[in-house]
Automatic annotation (TrEMBL):
Designated name of the protein: 8-oxo-dGTP diphosphatase
E.C. no: 3.6.1.55
Organism: Streptomyces justiciae
Keyword list, A-Z: DNA damage, DNA repair, DNA replication, Hydrolase, Magnesium, Metal-binding, Mutator protein
Keyword Cell membrane carried by entry: no
Length: 133
């Protein structure tokens, strides 16, 4: 059996909004929205990977809070795990630095106004329960 590779996604929360990122690459994912993040490297904890990926992709500094229960299959051998996080007080505002061309802070009522990647939908549903109504 192939060892699974964990991809961490960030449910980056700001009060009552969730950050969504629109993919610009690869072509088959471009234009769809996701929770930003990336692969956990050898010897790295998921929390450290998330902090690194958000710094690389969005230019932000975050505090990782906790893991959203569940794990969602991506294409083998990848699985998605999602963690909630908040921007640190001295962090710059997020900017789409790589793999994304647009970012949006979505309220609970706006969550489904963007076409999410299929594999992110179950995670976004779980995160939605943490946003105020």
């Amino acid at each position: 059996m192939t060892e699974r590779i964990v991809v961490v996604g960030a449910a980056l929360l700001d009060a009552d909004h969730l950050l969504a990122a629109r993919r610009s690459a690869p072509p088959e994912l471009a234009g769809r929205w996701e929770l930003p993040g990336g692969k956990v490297e050898q010897g790295e904890t998921p929390e450290a990977a998330l902090t690194r990926e958000l710094r690389e992709e969005l230019g932000v500094e975050v505090e990782v809070i906790d893991r959203v229960p569940g794990e969602w299959p991506l294409r083998p051998p990848y699985v998605l795990q999602v963690w909630t996080a908040h921007l640190l007080p001295d962090s710059p505002e997020p900017k789409p630095l790589q793999d994304h061309d647009e970012l949006r802070w979505l309220s609970r009522d706006e969550l489904w106004s963007v076409p999410w990647l299929d594999q992110d939908i179950p995670a976004v549903k779980k995160v939605a329960t943490r946003l105020p109504t």
